[in-house]
Automatic annotation (TrEMBL):
<dbReference type="InterPro" id="IPR029058">
    <property type="entry name" value="AB_hydrolase_fold"/>
</dbReference>
<keyword id="KW-0378">Hydrolase</keyword>
<protein>
    <submittedName>
        <fullName>Alpha/beta hydrolase</fullName>
    </submittedName>
</protein>
<dbReference type="GO" id="GO:0016787">
    <property type="term" value="F:hydrolase activity"/>
</dbReference>
Length: 183
Protein backbone atom coordinates (compact mmCIF):
# COMPACT_ATOMS: atom_id res chain seq x y z
CA UNK A 1 0.00 0.00 0.00
CA UNK A 2 1.32 3.42 -1.01
CA UNK A 3 0.17 6.52 0.90
CA UNK A 4 0.63 9.99 -0.63
CA UNK A 5 0.35 12.92 1.77
CA UNK A 6 -1.09 16.38 1.15
CA UNK A 7 0.74 19.37 -0.33
CA UNK A 8 1.53 20.99 3.04
CA UNK A 9 3.91 18.14 3.94
CA UNK A 10 6.10 18.60 0.85
CA UNK A 11 9.50 19.67 2.10
CA UNK A 12 11.46 18.65 5.16
CA UNK A 13 8.86 19.07 7.94
CA UNK A 14 6.70 15.97 8.56
CA UNK A 15 4.40 17.91 10.91
CA UNK A 16 3.74 21.32 9.33
CA UNK A 17 1.07 23.64 10.72
CA UNK A 18 -1.74 25.19 8.71
CA UNK A 19 -3.17 28.30 10.42
CA UNK A 20 -6.72 27.12 9.78
CA UNK A 21 -6.54 23.33 10.11
CA UNK A 22 -3.66 22.81 12.52
CA UNK A 23 -0.85 20.31 12.36
CA UNK A 24 -0.64 17.71 9.62
CA UNK A 25 0.75 14.72 11.49
CA UNK A 26 2.33 12.64 8.73
CA UNK A 27 4.16 10.30 11.18
CA UNK A 28 0.94 9.50 13.08
CA UNK A 29 -0.99 8.97 9.86
CA UNK A 30 1.67 6.50 8.66
CA UNK A 31 1.54 4.74 12.02
CA UNK A 32 -2.27 4.52 11.91
CA UNK A 33 -2.32 3.19 8.34
CA UNK A 34 0.41 0.60 8.98
CA UNK A 35 -0.82 -2.95 9.47
CA UNK A 36 0.55 -6.47 9.71
CA UNK A 37 -1.63 -7.46 6.73
CA UNK A 38 0.29 -5.33 4.21
CA UNK A 39 3.43 -3.27 3.65
CA UNK A 40 2.98 0.49 3.82
CA UNK A 41 5.16 2.75 1.68
CA UNK A 42 4.78 6.47 2.35
CA UNK A 43 7.32 8.67 0.61
CA UNK A 44 7.97 12.13 2.05
CA UNK A 45 7.95 14.22 -1.13
CA UNK A 46 10.39 17.11 -1.50
CA UNK A 47 9.19 20.69 -1.85
CA UNK A 48 8.18 21.53 -5.39
CA UNK A 49 7.41 17.95 -6.42
CA UNK A 50 5.75 17.76 -9.83
CA UNK A 51 2.59 15.63 -9.30
CA UNK A 52 2.76 14.08 -12.78
CA UNK A 53 6.41 13.08 -12.38
CA UNK A 54 5.75 11.63 -8.93
CA UNK A 55 2.73 9.68 -10.21
CA UNK A 56 4.94 8.18 -12.91
CA UNK A 57 7.38 7.09 -10.18
CA UNK A 58 4.51 5.39 -8.31
CA UNK A 59 3.39 3.76 -11.56
CA UNK A 60 6.92 2.40 -12.01
CA UNK A 61 6.86 1.12 -8.41
CA UNK A 62 3.62 -0.77 -9.12
CA UNK A 63 4.89 -2.19 -12.42
CA UNK A 64 8.06 -3.37 -10.68
CA UNK A 65 6.02 -5.14 -8.00
CA UNK A 66 3.78 -6.75 -10.62
CA UNK A 67 6.83 -7.91 -12.64
CA UNK A 68 8.16 -9.56 -9.45
CA UNK A 69 4.94 -11.51 -8.98
CA UNK A 70 2.78 -9.28 -6.76
CA UNK A 71 -0.83 -9.57 -7.88
CA UNK A 72 -2.24 -6.21 -9.04
CA UNK A 73 -5.25 -6.66 -6.73
CA UNK A 74 -2.78 -6.67 -3.81
CA UNK A 75 -1.58 -3.14 -4.63
CA UNK A 76 -3.35 -0.09 -3.22
CA UNK A 77 -2.63 3.62 -3.64
CA UNK A 78 -4.05 6.05 -1.09
CA UNK A 79 -3.77 9.80 -1.39
CA UNK A 80 -5.04 12.87 0.41
CA UNK A 81 -5.58 16.25 -1.28
CA UNK A 82 -2.58 16.74 -3.61
CA UNK A 83 -1.72 13.15 -2.77
CA UNK A 84 -5.23 12.27 -3.94
CA UNK A 85 -4.59 14.01 -7.25
CA UNK A 86 -1.32 12.05 -7.49
CA UNK A 87 -3.33 8.88 -6.83
CA UNK A 88 -5.71 9.78 -9.67
CA UNK A 89 -2.74 10.45 -11.96
CA UNK A 90 -1.18 7.11 -10.94
CA UNK A 91 -4.42 5.30 -11.73
CA UNK A 92 -4.59 7.04 -15.09
CA UNK A 93 -0.98 6.09 -15.97
CA UNK A 94 -1.22 2.53 -14.64
CA UNK A 95 -4.59 1.87 -16.34
CA UNK A 96 -5.16 -1.35 -14.39
CA UNK A 97 -8.64 -2.60 -13.66
CA UNK A 98 -7.29 -4.72 -10.78
CA UNK A 99 -5.32 -2.19 -8.69
CA UNK A 100 -7.02 -0.41 -5.77
CA UNK A 101 -7.19 3.36 -5.31
CA UNK A 102 -8.33 5.37 -2.27
CA UNK A 103 -8.94 9.08 -2.76
CA UNK A 104 -9.19 11.21 0.38
CA UNK A 105 -10.55 14.70 -0.39
CA UNK A 106 -8.65 14.49 -3.66
CA UNK A 107 -11.21 15.15 -6.39
CA UNK A 108 -10.19 18.76 -6.62
CA UNK A 109 -10.28 21.49 -9.24
CA UNK A 110 -7.09 20.00 -10.74
CA UNK A 111 -8.82 16.67 -11.36
CA UNK A 112 -12.00 18.35 -12.60
CA UNK A 113 -10.08 20.67 -14.95
CA UNK A 114 -8.15 17.80 -16.55
CA UNK A 115 -10.92 15.79 -18.24
CA UNK A 116 -8.37 13.49 -19.88
CA UNK A 117 -7.73 11.95 -16.45
CA UNK A 118 -9.61 8.73 -15.76
CA UNK A 119 -9.42 6.31 -12.89
CA UNK A 120 -9.35 2.56 -13.24
CA UNK A 121 -9.83 -0.45 -11.03
CA UNK A 122 -11.35 -0.46 -7.58
CA UNK A 123 -11.92 3.03 -6.21
CA UNK A 124 -12.87 4.16 -2.71
CA UNK A 125 -13.44 7.84 -1.99
CA UNK A 126 -13.79 9.61 1.34
CA UNK A 127 -14.65 13.29 1.61
CA UNK A 128 -15.55 15.65 4.46
CA UNK A 129 -18.95 17.33 4.12
CA UNK A 130 -17.66 20.68 5.48
CA UNK A 131 -14.76 20.72 2.98
CA UNK A 132 -14.72 22.48 -0.38
CA UNK A 133 -13.34 19.30 -2.00
CA UNK A 134 -16.28 16.95 -2.29
CA UNK A 135 -17.46 13.85 -4.08
CA UNK A 136 -15.51 12.01 -6.77
CA UNK A 137 -18.71 11.04 -8.60
CA UNK A 138 -17.87 13.33 -11.55
CA UNK A 139 -14.58 11.47 -12.01
CA UNK A 140 -16.28 8.08 -11.86
CA UNK A 141 -18.92 9.23 -14.36
CA UNK A 142 -16.27 10.02 -16.97
CA UNK A 143 -14.10 6.96 -16.25
CA UNK A 144 -15.22 3.90 -18.20
CA UNK A 145 -12.98 1.21 -16.68
CA UNK A 146 -13.76 1.48 -12.98
CA UNK A 147 -14.26 -2.02 -11.64
CA UNK A 148 -15.93 -1.00 -8.37
CA UNK A 149 -16.68 2.35 -6.74
CA UNK A 150 -17.60 3.11 -3.17
CA UNK A 151 -17.76 6.53 -1.58
CA UNK A 152 -18.49 7.75 1.91
CA UNK A 153 -18.69 11.17 3.45
CA UNK A 154 -17.65 12.05 6.95
CA UNK A 155 -18.93 15.02 8.92
CA UNK A 156 -16.44 16.20 11.51
CA UNK A 157 -16.75 19.92 10.84
CA UNK A 158 -12.95 20.03 10.40
CA UNK A 159 -13.06 20.81 6.67
CA UNK A 160 -9.88 19.72 4.83
CA UNK A 161 -8.19 19.35 8.22
CA UNK A 162 -10.23 16.20 8.91
CA UNK A 163 -7.48 14.30 7.09
CA UNK A 164 -4.58 16.06 8.87
CA UNK A 165 -4.64 13.51 11.69
CA UNK A 166 -5.53 9.82 11.76
CA UNK A 167 -9.08 9.99 13.11
CA UNK A 168 -11.24 6.90 13.14
CA UNK A 169 -13.90 8.43 10.91
CA UNK A 170 -11.68 7.94 7.86
CA UNK A 171 -8.88 5.57 8.98
CA UNK A 172 -11.17 2.70 9.99
CA UNK A 173 -13.25 2.64 6.77
CA UNK A 174 -10.10 2.99 4.65
CA UNK A 175 -8.31 0.11 6.36
CA UNK A 176 -11.43 -2.06 6.23
CA UNK A 177 -11.84 -1.36 2.51
CA UNK A 178 -8.17 -2.05 1.77
CA UNK A 179 -8.30 -5.36 3.65
CA UNK A 180 -11.49 -6.34 1.81
CA UNK A 181 -9.61 -5.92 -1.49
CA UNK A 182 -6.80 -8.24 -0.48
CA UNK A 183 -3.94 -5.78 -0.02
Amino acid sequence: MFYSHGFIVEGKNPTPINPRWGMYDFPKIKNALADDDYNLIAYHRPKGTNPRVFAKKLTENANTLISKGVKPENITFIGFSRGGAITVLTSNYLASEKVNFVILAGCSTFVNNNPELDVFGNVFSVFETSDGVGSCQFLIDRSKRVTTFEEISISTGKEHGAFYTPIGEWVIPVKNWVKSKGS
